[in-house]
Amino acid sequence: MEKRIAIPNTDLSLYPIGLGTVDAGLKWDGAKADRIIGTYLEQGGNVIDTAHVYSDWVPGEKARSERVVGDWLARSGKRSQIVLITKGGHPDMTRTTPDLHESRMTRGDMTEDLDGSLKQLRTDYIDLYFYHRDNRSQSVEEEIEVMEEFVKAGKIRYYGCSNWDADRMKAADDYCAKKGYRSFVADQSLLNLGMKYMNPLADDTLGYIKGESYQYHMDNPGNLAMPYMGNCSGFFHILEAKGEEGVQENAYYTPGNMRVAHRMKELQKRYECSLTQVILGFFFCQPFACVPLYGSSSPERVIDACKALEIPFTKEDYVKLLEE
């Protein structure tokens, strides 16, 4: 498939798989970060995704993922070669019992997070900056104007949304059209191969690309879908390695996904490909462009994931895989 996806009315051209860094500082850092990110760039990759909240739920260091990425940027001197993504406005995860419903999306919150991100990442600007959550009690107009202030200040180039509902994205688009603004260029919400049959996740603040949101992306190619949890939280890999005993408490452990897992073996055999490649191939057979975010703990897994782009999966493959 095409090795770059251009977002309309921007100068952004993205590799079809983004490198997720939620584990940076936990599972990899320093020299290992150099190998993982370096391997990703060698495959043609140019999208590095992080967030100011990664991984504050683990005590000891705040915004450690951004720090790891910033360290790599400083060592490598390759800032101009990547599309740098980060996010702000997430609820505070440093508390003993975080409240995911406590919004942090005021102008002050977003300014604090963005300035913190720039410091951690050791850069003067973010290519694509996201609202990590939404607050429906705030007006879309107010939230857009905050982002426009960041653009005018040169702190960010473009902005996007994460975990927003379709009606709010439409309202943002309408307001931006009236004001002559570009509006959201990307949406990070949950979409993956196991989503159709999964049980609800505990975090009810997460957004899903389904129903109205799925239709929104079909109708609005200017807002690129950038799905997270593309690897289904490792469900299919754990199932393959440990059997059903290893996934008993997993949200993806349902009769539907057990059928999918069985059928996936047929695709692996047909295309002589890996499990990861089947999982990622799902995104490239959607009716709209997707740049899934994939986090990897080794250079070898980066290479394996990127080879998914070379396999001629078809939409029919995934229709059969997911049929009831």
Structure commentary:
- It contains 11 helices and 10 strands.
- Helix content is 38%, strand content 11%.
- The protein has 324 residues and is α/β, with parallel strands linked by helices.
- Helix 1 packs parallel to helix 10, helix 2 (64-76) packs across helix 3 (107-121) and helix 8 runs antiparallel to helix 11.
- The protein is globular, with a radius of gyration of 19 Å.
Summed up, what is this model?
It contains 11 helices and 10 strands.
CATH level 3 topology: TIM Barrel
Can you say what the CATH homologous superfamily is? NADP-dependent oxidoreductase domain
Helix and strand content put the structural class at alpha/beta
What fraction strand? 5-15%
Radius of gyration: 19 Å
Q: What is the level 1 CATH name? A: Alpha Beta
Count of separate DSSP helical elements: 11
- What is the CA–CA distance across the termini? 29 Å
Topology:
Layout: E1 5-6, E2 13-14, E3 18-20, H1 30-42, E4 47-49, H2 64-76, E5 83-88, H3 107-121, E6 126-131, H4 140-152, E7 156-162, H5 166-179, E8 186-188, H6 212-219, E9 224-225, H7 235-242, H8 255-271, H9 275-281, E10 293-295, H10 299-306, H11 315-322
Parallel strand pairs: 3-4, 3-10, 4-5, 5-6, 6-7, 7-8, 8-9
Antiparallel strand pairs: 1-2
Helix pairs in contact: 1-2, 1-10, 2-3, 8-11
Question: Descriptors for this entry?
Answer:
single chain; 324 residues; alpha/beta; TIM Barrel; eight-stranded parallel beta sheet; two-stranded antiparallel sheet; globular
